[in-house]
Amino acid sequence: MSGLEQRIHDAVHGQTQPTVTVLSSLLAVEDELGYIPKEAVEFVAGFSNSTVNDVWAVASFYPNFRFEPPTEHLVEVCWGASCHLVGAMGVFKSVIEAAGMDDEGDRADKRVTVRFNTCLGACSQAPVMSLDHHLAGRVNPESAAKNVANLLEQEGHGS
Ligand code: FES
Known about the structure:
Layout: H1 3-13, H2 22-33, H3 38-47, H4 52-61, E1 73-78, H5 81-85, H6 88-98, E2 105-106, E3 112-117, E4 129-131, E5 134-136, H7 141-153
Parallel strand pairs: 1-3
Antiparallel strand pairs: 1-4, 2-3, 4-5
Bound molecules: FE2/S2 (inorganic) cluster (FES).
């Protein structure tokens, strides 16, 4: 078994909640690896007596699953109602520009991913962004761009 297969195996078998489903198994893999490799789809299909197609159907329904290994840095911009009302749109534009990108997604050199989040759970500090899972509240377009520039000067969280 390869290292990747072992981690998939352990993540799926390590679930302790009473109800284990295709979705919970995929979430366990995403938690462990940061993405769902095709080996995991095959493994979860075997584990849950489903077909690979059924597992893909569940996996592709959830927009937060990734199917590629994570990039070095993750920047999320909250797009929830509270943040929207106080300028999330401007923050998002500025973040995309600071990252040297045209839209959300992975930058071509895999140094950063920018994506929306529907609520980062800190609405009282809106507008909110997160940088490698660290929240930054009450940002504005200028501070958000600075945060992204600082992040991109650092080594990736995986290295
Ligand atoms: S709506 Fe932005 S943190 Fe909740």
